[in-house]
Write a structure and sequence with these properties.
About 50% of the residues lie in helices and about 10% in strands. It has about 325 residues and is of the alpha+beta class. Helix 4 runs parallel beside helix 6 and helix 6 crosses helix 9. It is elongated, with a radius of gyration of 41 Å. The relative contact order is 0.10.
Length: about 325
Amino acid sequence: MNLAFIKKRPVFALCLGVTVLLLIGAGTGLFLSERLYARQALALDAVTARLQQLYRRDPFPAAPNVHKEAENLKDVIDQYNELNEFLRTGQVNLQPMEAADFMQFLEKSLRKLRDRLQNARIKFPEKYAFGFDKYAVGQLPASGDIPRLVQQLKIIEALCDILQEADIAELVAIERDHFEQAARGADASGGRRGAPSPEAAASSPGGDKLVSSQHFKISVKARENTVIEMLNLLASRPMFMVVTRVEMTNPRQQYSAGGPVSAPAVAARAPGTPEPAARERQVILGREKLDVKLGLDVCQFAPSLSFKEGGKK
């Protein structure tokens, strides 16, 4: 094809040039696509080989590792059980009982507590029921509440032993956790019949918790050395108890530990009388009888764990 032919047919020449360019572009694209395909094929082969390797691999650990981990777990559970059994020493467990038997048990226990305090010459309110007032007058408890009521009564007996041994002057009050009232309140507010409230369920012993607690409050009148002895006895008893609060007030002084002066005391102060120094306000102890309020948590620990089942015995 010479130059004269191209000049005579310019349209044909233009189409020929465009065709050549398209062929070059198509060839280049085919070459690049082939290289991309080759790379993708290699990557796919690598992923497929890895997948086949994972499918053929044994997913379970080796037998020696399983045996070693089982021994480690057994050692951990044994150490936990050893500590747990030590903490459970002296623990008062739940005790099922019929309602009629509970009423007799309550009457005998209250009579025994009063006699022991009276024999120890410890003052206490007349016909004191130690927090079981409504049951002491004849009201029957719900059958589901009896095991924990028996437990609380035995805990109060242990606390009274400590108060007697410490030789306090007067027992003002012992307050227990009235869990049954919280449960009845939740029932009356529209909850399921017999289902305890979340607060009662959270503080109730047992369940899946490894440790739970019940709160008690004790108000007594005693001297300083008696209070110290009482705290020592609470700490040394096998039953696991944690003192959460100690409040001591000397009724013969205007100022308690860290407390502000009362309004009547300020009014009764003569004009020009200097205000007591801060150090004098802190002096509340001595030979006088103190008004003492104690708060303590009595802990209950779950039974030991079984290694074979991984649950409780």
